[in-house]
Specification:
The structure is a single chain. The protein is mainly alpha-helical. It has one domain (about 1-55, about 65-370). It has 16 helices and no strands. Helix 5 packs parallel to helix 15 and helix 11 packs across helix 12.
């Protein structure tokens, strides 16, 4: 029975990764923009290529606002492959695939389980495509999360101040991709303070502040007078007071479609060892930051599926790690066996795949490819 469940989970994971990648490639080749953000990215990257100011006076209140990080990366690729929508989409899709591979590595490292790691990789791909947005849409979200995961991974693999400095540079760079990365900067700072001596947290904190402050002043001078408006004033004006959307976010998203990783993370707080302690505690801090990022995003008039991606990625890491810790602890009780715990976990993973598949409508494949 356990072998059959494991084979089912592996098969579903591999098919999910292949299928979502295929859908993403179809969208990359689709010639027309399907989202206002794609138009804004291309316009801004084109201005950067031609040396013009990166920000202009907004034409209307619905203009899309972007930090310069992702358009700048698109402009660099555009100089090599041409300023085309497919280039921006290919970058976004490549970032998603890279995130999935990094999540696979992280979960494998923390759990020593191929089943957990393959499932986590599939959860990233399925969560992005079915709960967030179409894979390959030219938005900065996947680029931001790639840097976030990379920064946390550097902190996990290093111990000295040089590792803290490198992680600070990577995570600070995410601020210039999307201001929502501030949540992850705060989480990384908290995790380092909980786990390390004074020198490493101070190195991380001071380096982050210097990079963000210096970069912001420099970009304000380089990108024109409308930079501050686009990255501060416009998002602030989009804020609203909404008490219904957060309930839907928690009830339908966290406790509905992502109930398995969410409940596993919550149950890990009952463990004898606090889940935020030690090197592995980084992932709990990242998970909390991802969930809070989505919760606060519900108060924006621009709230949409793409804003759920940070929480999806964070829970794809945290959920399997928490499940492994919980089952390992329970199997040590008198009368319990590790074999029985594995069977329960495999059944739970299979059920999570069923939840994802229930989100697929008959027109999903055509809709995801942008062909409707």
């Amino acid at each position: 029975m356990i072998k059959a469940l494991r084979a089912t989970v592996f098969t579903l994971s591999v098919l999910a990764v292949i299928g979502i990648t295929y859908v993403g490639v179809l969208l990359v080749m689709h010639p027309q923009p399907i989202d206002p953000a794609e138009v804004a990215v291309l316009e801004q990257s084109d201005r950067m290529v031609h040396g013009a100011t990166g920000y202009t006076e907004p034409v209307g209140s619905t203009d899309w606002t972007l930090m310069p990080g992702f358009p700048y990366a698109v402009s660099l690729l555009g100089q090599l492959f041409g300023q085309d929508l497919s280039v921006a989409r290919a970058l976004a899709l490549a970032c998603l695939i890279a995130i999935a591979l990094m999540v696979f590595w992280i979960v494998r490292m923390e759990t020593q389980s191929w089943t957990f790691s393959v499932s986590a990789m599939a959860f990233v791909m399925l969560g992005h495509a079915l709960l967030a947005e179409r894979p390959g849409v030219a938005r900065p979200d996947t680029f931001m999360m790639l840097l976030v995961v990379a920064g946390f991974l550097v902190l996990r693999l290093t111990n000295g101040i040089w590792g803290a400095l490198l992680a600070a540079l990577i995570l600070s760079a995410t601020f210039f991709v999307d201001v929502r990365a501030t949540w992850f900067l705060a989480a990384a700072t908290a995790a380092v303070m909980l786990d390390d001596s004074r020198r490493r947290p101070l190195t991380f904190l001071i380096s982050s502040l210097v990079v963000i402050a210096g970069g912001y002043v420099g970009l304000s001078l380089m990108l024109g007078p409308w930079f501050n408006f686009h990255v501060i004033d416009a998002p602030a004006r989009a804020l609203r007071l909404d008490g219904v959307t957060p309930l839907y976010y928690v009830g339908s998203h966290l406790l509905g479609k992502l109930a398995l990783p969410t409940c596993a993370a919550v149950l890990s707080f009952a463990m004898p060892t606090a889940p935020w302690r030690g090197k592995g505690g980084l992932w709990m801090c990242m998970g909390i930051a991802g969930v809070l990022s989505g919760l606060v995003a519900t108060q924006s008039s621009h709230y949409g599926g793409h804003l759920l991606l940070p929480g999806i990625v964070a829970l794809s890491v945290l959920g399997p790690i928490s499940m492994q810790r919980i089952t390992g602890h329970l199997s040590a009780w008198p009368g319990s066996t590790r074999l029985a715990g594995r069977g329960v976990v495999l059944a739970a993973l299979a059920l999570q795949f069923i939840v994802f598949l229930s989100c697929v409508s008959p027109s999903w494949w055509r809709g995801q490819a942008g062909l409707n």
